[in-house]
């Protein structure tokens, strides 16, 4: 496999809504730092009227400002104060709520729909699926729904559900026995829109698991779920105590660690047969890129060539290119 990248390298600049950007996902230079192994072996609402699946109306109240991020407020179904796990108790947006119902991976306690959307074709399938799942649907004043919303555009639909279950790291390392593990780890990605888009790409590219650090990383907020278009319901995600130590553990189990960041020793498009091995792609944070300890744990750092005037890509765009390139190589597509 040839080293080096052509042109400038992309980084994963984050879009946090403040126009800030950084280097977090690709790169130019060199790094086979750390101990590179030989080629690894393959190996509540307390009372409701109408009963389950019933449709109810609820009053409004003064309109208020929307809040972004975080999980459901205390006192709502499924709320348990500060989120300690993956999160995901409050889901907003039509596609995210639709996938929540379709996936049937967790209990949905109730769905709120803006009253003016009653009978609207745009939410008709949500109402039908909810009825089939015996999930209560409440029609509420839009002002009330938007006061509860944590994302910028809930599209008149909001759901309360059980928290997303964490995947077992050991199971992700072992894989399903049909194909080599394909993992993606994020190093300090804190923008929920970026994480949601990353998870959506991971689902589309067939990633077998996403690793989220317990600290210094956003987990599944309403904005993440909405930005993922409901992909959070289908992608296995594990919370890990620390990324450097987890990457060391992965290497001990024969998984290659490939960082996407500035300072690359090879081009993303020169991965070749490495893509067929058990692999973990590591994406750097918005702004800072890969941290020093994480870089040292990588077997290789790869970059996305930048041929125009802009020197980097947003971390979620870089994630899409990298995951689909690995998926392409695994399928043997030339």
From the alpha carbons, calculate the radius of gyration and give it in angstroms: 21 Å
How many extended strands? 15
CATH architecture of the largest domain: 3-Layer(aba) Sandwich
Kindly identify the CATH topology of the largest domain.
Alpha/beta knot
Helix vs. strand class: alpha/beta
Highest-level CATH class of the largest domain: Alpha Beta
Using the alpha-carbon principal axes, give the shape.
elongated
* Mean pLDDT metric: 80
The named CATH superfamily of the largest domain: SPOUT methyltransferase, trefoil knot domain
Q: Which stretches of 5+ consecutive residues score pLDDT under 50?
A: 1-54, 57-75, 77-83
Main sheet? Answer: 8 strands, mixed
Number of helices: 9
Q: What is the share of helical residues? A: 25-40%
Structure description:
- This protein has helices at 94-103, 121-132, 142-148, 169-174, 192-205, 222-227, 243-252, 292-297, 315-330; strands spanning 8-10, 12-13, 55-58, 90-92, 108-114, 137-140, 157-161, 182-187, 209-213, 237-240, 256-260, 266-267, 279-284, 300-306, 313-314.
- The protein has 334 residues and is an alpha/beta fold.
- The chain has 2 domains: 8-41 and 165-330, 3-Layer(aba) Sandwich (Alpha/beta knot), CATH 3.40.1280; 55-161, 60s Ribosomal Protein L30, Chain: A.
- The strands form 3 sheets. Strands 1, 8, 9, 10, 11, 12, 13 and 14 form an 8-stranded mixed beta sheet that branches.
- α6 (222-227) links the parallel β9 (209-213) and β10.
- α1 runs parallel beside α2 (121-132) and α5 runs parallel beside α9.
- It is elongated.
């Amino acid at each position: 496999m040839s080293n080096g990248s052509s042109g400038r390298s992309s980084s994963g600049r984050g879009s946090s809504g403040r126009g800030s950007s950084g280097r977090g996902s690709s790169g130019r230079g060199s790094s086979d730092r750390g101990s590179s192994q030989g080629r690894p072996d393959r190996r509540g609402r307390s009372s409701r009227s109408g009963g389950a699946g019933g449709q109810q109306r609820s009053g409004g109240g003064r309109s208020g400002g929307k809040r972004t991020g975080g999980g459901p407020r205390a006192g709502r179904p499924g709320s348990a104060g500060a989120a300690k796990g993956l999160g995901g108790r409050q889901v907003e947006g039509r596609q995210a709520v639709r996938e929540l119902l379709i996936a049937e991976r967790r209990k949905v306690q109730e769905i709120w729909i803006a009253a003016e959307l009653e009978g609207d074709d745009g939410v008709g399938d949500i109402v039908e699926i909810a009825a089939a799942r015996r999930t209560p649907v409440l029609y509420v004043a839009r002002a009330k729904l938007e006061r509860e919303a944590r994302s910028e555009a809930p599209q008149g639909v909001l759901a309360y559900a059980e928290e997303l279950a964490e995947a077992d790291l050991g199971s992700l390392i072992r894989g399903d026995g049909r194909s080599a593990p394909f993992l993606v780890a994020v190093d300090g990605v804190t923008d929920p829109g970026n994480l949601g888009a990353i998870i959506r790409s991971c689902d589309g590219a067939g990633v077998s698991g996403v690793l989220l650090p317990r600290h210094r990383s956003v987990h599944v907020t309403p904005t993440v779920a909405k930005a993922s278009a409901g992909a959070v319901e289908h992608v296995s995600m594990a919370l890990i105590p620390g990324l450097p130590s987890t990457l060391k553990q992965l290497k001990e189990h024969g998984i290659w660690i490939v960082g996407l960041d500035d300072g690359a020793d090879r081009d993303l498009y020169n991965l070749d047969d490495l893509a067929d091995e058990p692999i973990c792609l590591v994406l750097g944070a918005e702004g800072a890129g890969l941290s020093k300890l994480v870089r040292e744990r990588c077997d290789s750092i790869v970059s996305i060539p930048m041929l125009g005037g802009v020197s980097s890509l947003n971390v979620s765009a870089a994630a899409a290119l990298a995951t689909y390139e690995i998926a392409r190589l695994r399928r043997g597509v030339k």
